[in-house]
Amino acid sequence: MTQPPLAVTVVAQGAMGAGVGRRLARNGVEVRTSLAGRSRASAERAAAAGMRDVEDAALVAVPIVLSIVPPSEAVATVERFAAICRRTGARPLYADLNAVSPETAARVAGIAEAAGMAFADGGIIGGPPREDGYNPAIYVSGAEAPRLAVLRERGGLDIRLIEGPVGAASALKMSYAGITKGLTALASTMMLAATRAGAAEALHAELSQSQPQLLAWFGRMVPSMYAKAYRWAGEMEEIADFIGRDRAESAIYDGAARLYERLAADEAGERREIAALEAFLQRGAKPG
Amino acid sequence: MTQPPLAVTVVAQGAMGAGVGRRLARNGVEVRTSLAGRSRASAERAAAAGMRDVEDAALVAVPIVLSIVPPSEAVATVERFAAICRRTGARPLYADLNAVSPETAARVAGIAEAAGMAFADGGIIGGPPREDGYNPAIYVSGAEAPRLAVLRERGGLDIRLIEGPVGAASALKMSYAGITKGLTALASTMMLAATRAGAAEALHAELSQSQPQLLAWFGRMVPSMYAKAYRWAGEMEEIADFIGRDRAESAIYDGAARLYERLAADEAGERREIAALEAFLQRGAKPG
Fold first, then answer.
1. Per the database record, which ranges form the Phosphogluconate dehydrogenase NAD-binding putative C-terminal domain (chains A, B) (predicted)?
2. A252 and B248 in contact by Cβ < 8 A?
């Protein structure tokens, strides 16, 4: 018995969106997207992933819409889909898989539901799906989240249903990213400060001796951050909201957001701080 | 040939000061200290370590004075010794081994040198010396620092001379502690936020799977922090100074300082947040 074809809309076409789209397409799912206003690079990623650019009405004429965008675009994205649904009367399940706070997820849910869509909360832990079979964990929560299991069964995604209402999956994503991307910020801050103070060599030597696992972790995570620093800045803001602005420790993530903003500008510009980070991490490669 | 006896003054008698004092005393060094205004617990630690309570004049009639106090007491401590040296004319080498910024170390140096003392900068990485032979690394820098090598040769301490002026050893200490104690703050922040949001179980499970080394590290470092949170708060302030208050990422350490202040109060009081941290970390001990 052949099943009826499954169609899923995935917005947008960044590394993660295109990676998820390709995984679904390779598994026989029809993957729709919208390239309106998107860059040529996005269009190329979408085409390579087997994602089809469609008109607005077709975007929502699917059982499931996945929102995979930078945190700062989560609300604008659901507003766009809500407007299309109001015009067409379509009622897909809208899943927000973005790195946003539970509060932002609740706001997105309210906009989706006011337009008649069902809503599921989600959060992605890990990098984009790869050709070698690697899949990130896609955590989902909320009463409608079980409807996303079809993406595991037929789409090859690692969908993980967790207990709890809308917001639970986002809370997990925030607290996990707060550790991993927070530590990347903290390590970068200290490698840069040690370099400015002339203590880089001594710090690298001491870390090599007493914290070799952390140093190895920095060597993997810090270089992978440069190109993503702009997006991570927004994520740090969401994490500060998640902690609660009334709690003093939320300042940790405000500080991390400012660092990532500066590194994003450095990455696009002179790359002076990035060169300092690279020089620090490559000390390990030198003999002695 | 017997060497003339070596006398060293160590202030104060906290876990680190008493541990260093004991290591020196066990190696035959005469260890002097001052118990004026100190608690009964300090007096007991000093006695157990073989540290001798002496009058002010005898405190400075030694070749070396080691300052091992909370960061917030570093300046008051050197001021006290400077006053004694002015009265007595003694000229010991004053080594500040505290977790202070290079700027604070320079200020301490200025006060010591104005009273005629030589000065060495230092920073201790690791816990107090233990009976099992464990020694922390005591990094020292500055033109006078080579005079501290006698504490390795005759005192059994792990003295490590690093290149650079006064401030270099403090910079190393700041950047190392900024990573390790900063990460402890960040992990505590996220474990508490996840717990408040009902995501503790999911976070623990995901960390167990994808970041087992970090989770094990938290299990060692977080519980060791509770009793030291008050002192660590001051250290976070020094690290923010070290980064430079004009750099936005210094806010990371202001946030960490506030968290440690609150946890110190919780540790002395209701222990509600500490109980939440313990509950999080002990999830790993449960079957399944």
1. 194-263
2. no
